[in-house]
Structure formats: structure tokens, C-alpha cells
Amino acid sequence: MRLTFNDTAFDISSSGKTFTLTLDDQTIQAEVLHSEDGKLDLLIDGKRVTAYVSSDNTRRWVTISGQTVVLTKSTGARQGRHGHHHAAGELIAPMPGQVRAVNVNEGDRVTKGQTLLVLEAMKMEIRIHALQDGVVKNVFVSQGQTVEREQALIEMEGN
To answer: Which of 41, 73, 138, 150 could form an S-S bond across to 155 if both were Cys, CB 3.0 to 4.6 Å?
Structure first.
């Protein structure tokens, strides 16, 4: 299967419980140790990792260690959505959940990778990070609010 993340296409193939990810000339193998209801216990490079996965027809939301990425099935054409954003600078909820913390305000200057807010979904904590350095233009949610998948959370402006 061909998937895309942040404009980068890669292939995933499987043989039994072993998955192989190929990106350019790099290959990574992951063995599924256990899977149940969207939770995968994996062995990657000798390290045990837990991943939570949800999907629709074209996208897969994968959360590992509180970091969520959105993978899209490649069609050969460029995809319209990558990562956690709709339009440039708009961060969205990767799945339904409740806002546990909002760490920024409108006008705040943030750096790439900074945790902007924290969601709780399916008994796991999902940290939404800045995709680039910039300024928070709008905060659309507040602590305690319930959000739906793909709901706009924060709008950012680049440097």
C-alpha cells in the first residue's frame, strides 16, 4: 500500500504479522506483537512500541507516544491534506476527544514542536504540536470542550 505523510510517499507491505516500510532506500520492519480494537503493540528495531490507529476510507490517524500523524492513501496525485492541518496553518483534531489543556493564547509566538494543546481520546493523551515556528492567530477551543475529528483547534501564521 502506498501512503503519504507531509508530501512524502512511502510503501508499506505486510507478510503475516511483519510490516515493512520503505522510504527511498531506507527500510524499517515492524512486528505486530498484539492487536486489539485500534491498539497495536509493535516491535520496531528491538524496541516495544504501542500505537493507536483509527481510520476512514483514505486516512489513518496513528498515535505513538502522544504524537499523532495522519497518513493518506496515495492516488498518484498530490493529496490535499497532510499532517494535522486543513489549510495552511490550521491545526485539527485527529480524532474525537476532550480538550484537557490549552497552552497558548492568540498572539503567542511558538516554535516548531511546541505543545500547543492536549486532547484526551480513548483514554490516551494526544499532544498537538506546532508544525513550524510562528504566531498563534486563533484558538478555536477551550479547556474541557469536546471536539470532533477534523475540527479546527488552532490557526497559526508563519514567521
So the answer is: 138
Q: What pLDDT, on a 0 to 100 scale, did the predictor assign at position 6?
A: 65
Q: What is the pLDDT of residues 119-132, one digit of tens each?
A: 998 888 888 888 88
**Residue of 63, 103, 105 whose CA lies nearest to 84:** 63
Query: Residue type for 3, please?
Result: L
H or E segment to which residue 90 belongs: strand 90-92
109 contact partners, CB below 8 Å, separation of at least 6: 133, 134, 135
State the pLDDT at residue 39: 85
Distances (CA, A) of 25 to 7, 21, 115: 17, 10, 32
Here the cell at position 138 is: 486563533
